[in-house]
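Why show two proteins at once? Because comparison is the fastest way to build intuition. When a single record is shown, students tend to memorize it. When two are placed side by side, the eye starts asking what differs. So, the first record is below.
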Amino acid sequence: MRQFPLIVALCLWAVTLQAQYLANPSFEGPSLLGQPPDPWEICNDNSSPDTQPGHWNVTSPASDGDTYISMVCRGDSSALANQVESCGQQLLQPLLAGNEYQIRVDLMNSDQFGHLTNGGYWLYYDIPTSLRVTAGNAQCDEPQFIGQIGPVAALDWITWDYCFTPPIDLTYIKLEAGYMPDTTYFGVIFVDNMRITATPSELDLGPDLIVCNEESITLDAGPGWYDYEWINSVNSQTFEVTESGTYWVSVSKCGNVYSDTINVIIEGAIVEIEGQICEGASYAFADQLLTLPGQYADTIPTLNQCDSIINLNLELVDEYNLNLEAEICMGQTYLLGNQNIEESGIYTENLVSSAGCDSTITLDLTVNPLIVELFTEEICQGQSYIFAEQVLTEAGEYSDTLQTANFCDSLVILTLEFADILQGTLQAEICGEQSFFFQSQELTEPGTYIDTISTPDFCDSIAILELSRIDFLESEQVITICPDEFYFAEGADQNQAGTYIDTLQSLNFCDSIVTTDLRIANYDFETQDLNLCVGESYELNGRIITESGTYADTLNQSPDCPLILNSNFTFELCECNLIIPNAFSPNGDGLNDNFRAFGPCEVENVNFYVYDRWGKQVHHSTAINPGWDGTYNGEELPLGVYVWMLFYDLSTTNEIKNYYLDGNVTLIR
């Protein structure tokens, strides 16, 4: 039966293309501030992504699942200036050099994300921001730029597609909020439901099929595509055929649309087939090339002696219509084909579709009008208010034109008013028979007093004083001194542990009793371990340390006694510079016969690649020695310039560092 080889081939293809590359692609996890969900890891210690919703005024639901991440970029003048948030993970399997991959991710912006500053105003992170994607072979490493998606201005989730072909194998991926440096730039991007797939090379439903009427067949467009659409609007990878006919499927990848058609004939019955052709095209049927619409018939004998009569109803295909919706700001233009459009309305553009038929694109364009925002502020008589670089001193209505989050102009209208009289309450205390002066009044009794105050900096206000009388005060304190120190108590310098009682006069002139628990502290000892590189130095309380050993020093610490600090210094080799020649001569004379790296130290996890001038890999090894002998598959390669790349790790006492080198080498014969 003809369908079995077809199904087997498609299953093998599915194993390759449906492989998973990301763990937790939908960013599912607990809603945490400053922490992405596992296994995504932070790549910038100064500022990290958040797991949303629930932080920084974010309430929007996820595009897929329950949670997603937000990443911001800053351009202010603070210590976090020009910081961007990023995270990454190790891929479940590597992205292979030369293969094409498609990233599909849901992205969104926000007009509510922000925080309250120390100055008391709300700072919005609402500038459209891009998602920058890089990859490498170590956590948060980014030697390979994959692409930048955006900037994203939409306030609802939108799915973005992006295709790329890596030049080298990649095992880690990094996501970062991207922006152009600007001292007033504050942006945020929400990320959810990120998928990486290996793209299929072609769409092929196979040859036309003939089966007997007791059989059935499943058509399979293959995995790795997006937006499957079969005849009758069936959206799936496969399609079950139950009757003879012409079947087609439309799929997409990397922003392009592909389609294929197959005829399925069930023998032993009269089969009605609906066919379509474009204007000026032909249709193959019963060894004929049909160019005109109409009714055609053919009888097909089979080995099973269940002849089929095929009736073809061939129709002329109408134009393929694609409807688009878009928005622009007032004063902007939209490019549709060769048309520059500036006004709202319905516009069309005629194109040729992937099937060769004429198609029509219909654009529904909306030009966003000017946005008007109203707000009201109050000032006192004689004060001023700064608005749109103006110093305002009179009540009234003022306007200014600004740019909104979607880059459209908006009109801001300020209504400035004079404030009403303010009222404030002051609380004060007196001791015993003392008095308190309030607005030229000498008060000796507790109670509530009211006065009106007018100053050049504030509006007239009503001041309310609540005056109370306090009683005798008592307090206790614990004082710790070193054995050779003294503390003044009970009229003398004390050096013995114990309890001392003093009668004092407080700042508000009320007598108080202070009970002091005097304690004598002990000396303390601490040890610290310091690792430095050979050639570095360390200043320890005025001494310059350059060699390994243990050094003791006495340090002052307050309020405790002196600290005896023992410092253990270890100096070690931290870096290793490899030497790589730019030419070699594999002629068998024992001199410079192999191309390799030289160095004074041991390296690990080596991956050494050599490519010819056309990008073909001619050598790969996982060790420094013996290097490349100038051959490929046992054949000597011609003289010329070749490109090399070297990845390796160097272990120190504290960590493993990753290195990457590349360059050119000349093969001489």
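Second record. Ask yourself what differs from the first in the token line.
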Amino acid sequence: MRQLNVGFVVRQLVWSAACVLAAGGVSAAEAAADDELEQVVVTGSRLATSGFSSPTPVTVLGADAIEELGITNIGAGANQLPAFRATTTPTTNGFGSFNVGAQIVNLRGLGVSRNLVLVDGRRFAPVTREGTVDLNLVPSGLVERLEVVTGGASAAYGSDAVAGAVNVILDKDLTGIKAQADYGVTGEGDGQNYHLSLAGGASFAGGRGHFILGGEYAKQDGIGDCFTRSYCTNSAVITNTGAGANSALGVTLYRVNSGAGFIANPRGVINSLNTTNVAIRNLLGTNGLTFDAAGNPVAYRLGIPSSGVTGVGPDTTSSYTTVQLEVPVDRYATFGHAYFDFSDNVRGFIEGSFGHVDGEVDQSRYFGAALPIFVDNPFVPAAIRALLPAASATPSGVRPAAGSFNLAVLGQRRGHSASEADSMRATTGLKVTLNDKWSWDAYYQYAHTDRFQSVENNLATGAPRLVAQGPAGISNAASTAYWSWANDAVYNPADAALPAAQRRIVCRATISADAALRAAASGCVPFNPFGDQASQAALDYVYRTLTEDIHIAQHVVAANLQGEVAELWAGPLSIATGLEYRHDSTSLQHDALSNSFAYFQNFGADYNASQDVLEGYLETELPLARDLPMINALNFNGAIRRTRYDISGFGGAQRLPRTSWMPPHGRWAWCGSPSTGRASGSRPRATFARRTSTRCSRPAPALSVR
């Protein structure tokens, strides 16, 4: 969809300056040597093996490939891989109102909360109440490669890695400065995006330490609905059953490429699918009515087939007019890492990050159950009023059981969602080499995220169970059903002796005999749903702003031990084991209506919850054969993890033990030539930074991209 037909793409903005600063007197031969491929072990395992094979399929996406594709976001790069389903991205947020602008990966399409996202093998800051990670917060300029493990990951990496683990590897030995600036625009001249990235690194303390710093800023303009593109048509899959079916088609589901959409509009529609009153819907001889701006009946042609909420016909309203192709996003991220070798065997590190993501989207319009219109509603147009029984001059305060006819309505206002998140993370740890066979590592992490979400012009529908259907009125004085109350308008019984033009119009709920219902509906403004006649006060009464304020904190302490237990006939028996403890706390505060679930779109109610998780794992690899005819290597690999969750804040405390395991399995390994796994050759680069090329060799034909 995005084309770079206008604008500039400037790669490595300060490459010439970096050349002077970083290259110095480096000879051409030395520069060429730096660009030679260096082996990087990609094992998909926690075992400390030499790594020419992997117990699980591993997909690798290198930084070079991301740059060559013109991708300026590691999350967008991950979604280029077939293992991912892009469900929470700026190009899919047009369908929802949560976490707008985020880049949250969905491995295997199993759900965003079923994959584990790591940075250099360690957890990263969660940014949503589901505990997911936004890859917007990792500057792309520091990324060396992305590794994806899909088999046995929950046993080896964490019990929440049900679908697999995504590990972002940073170039921690980056030396020099590199910068990048991008500008993009679509072929239609919209969707402009800007991106700036700066990263650098240097050694200190005589080479015993090294630090890297990176920052990134991106601004992305939105793209409108589907009809901003010439290829868009009113297409839909129609349920071909019921009153509006076309039996001649001989199918229950019918795909049509044009002329399809919702059987509703913001001015209201009456047709055979939402009312049985033949006289009203056939008032103009078309078996359907809609209304002009002044509320006068206008012919509505339903068409066939039509069923439920969608149909094929000249007057349907396409659902594509209410979904953005891409949402506007502003984001920036900073990241720093430094390590120091206290000795030849002890390395310490510290790193921190801070990022901000701000996105917004124009939502789809409200479309719910057909709105019942009662005989005593004073807003009913005169032409339809003439077809109804006479209404009482003293309306009852009890809502009738059924309406005289129903009105299919799309929201008069379109919702607007916004989501803003600030996230910080600080991590420190040690890695200790005990000898040439054993090592251990440990780290502590603290992360905190503040997210504020809102939905303006969110229709306060109220739950159906809260709408009074009889003398019982309302069961909960705090419950609200503004949309139903406002559209159940009647004349005030106290004005029965006055001419119709002088009588006050009120909401029926305000004259109920039920004191709780009258109190809850106090301030109700009668709503005229016919045409564009609803008053500003009535619109403001039924359309409110939902807010959600989220605060997330996480503490993690983890330690791992890897080594070789013994040298056996076909190689070393290796093990990896470790423990992890983390404390997660999440608090959510909403506006009052959210807590009574009164909106068309609800985020949920307030809560303040926490969980303590303790995990332990063991992974081992037993070599069975090596260098035999037709068998280069045959190993058994297995892992097991035990997890305990202590959860509180959801109506009580729970303790949930859980075991994840990867059964032992055989692995055939054919080691290839030295060039195996290299997808592109060496080439001159304008980026003067020491880079480690991505290379892996595996028995399985897993994708490896450099």
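One difference worth noting in the second protein: Confidence is low (pLDDT under 50) at residues 1-43, 467-473, 664-706.
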